[in-house]
Amino acid sequence: MEHLASEGFHCLAPDQRGYSAGARPADVAEYDYDYLANDAVGFLDAMGWERAHLIGHDWGALAGWAALDVAPARFRSWVPMSVPHGTAFGKAIRENETQKKMSEYINFFRRVGTAEEVFAANDYAVLRGIYGDAHPASEVDEYISFFSQPGALTGGFNWYRATEGVRPTRNGTEFAPVSTPTLLVWGKNDVAIGRDAIMAGKECMTGPYELLELDCSHWIVQEAFDQVTGPITAHFKKYS
To answer: What's the total number of domains in the chain?
Structure first.
């Protein structure tokens, strides 16, 4: 955000539902793609912004794909990080043996109560392990202090539970093809999203589309900051 601000962009990074103590619905159904999509549009409305560039990583990317499905005219350009178009990704999870294996963890995350218990055990040892060495210890401690709040872990897992995990749809309909100028950023050492899913995403793109492949893991910003900021800034400026 500091980098983009220095380039003249006004940046907003909101806490999304479940991750915000002030917006943590108890009803799992309130974490489906319609809610995630309309939250993104609602943030623009709250700021008084007619249009904006959009960027999202991991689940933020899936929320972004959903937002483009709801209101594509509101977004000048789009930078999904790690996750390709939702329709392609869902199909890969269901049909591609490699991606199916990489995504097995989703079924565990959807186990109500069990997932929370395992993640919270031994001072959140599992969660700390997921962050690994890519994040500074102080950053991981900050994340843990947040996830130790009552209901925070459940709010995060509810994203998996409400959206059926392996079938990204809105009201039973797959996401439509996207014409918004898109720069997909992917780390080729990602343990959760494989090359087959990434390459399949191109089939769902009808507008300007680029793939930036980096030699890093899932934690793109932490591991490849200098490699990713330039292309993202150039992408935003090109479509401003």
So the answer is: 2
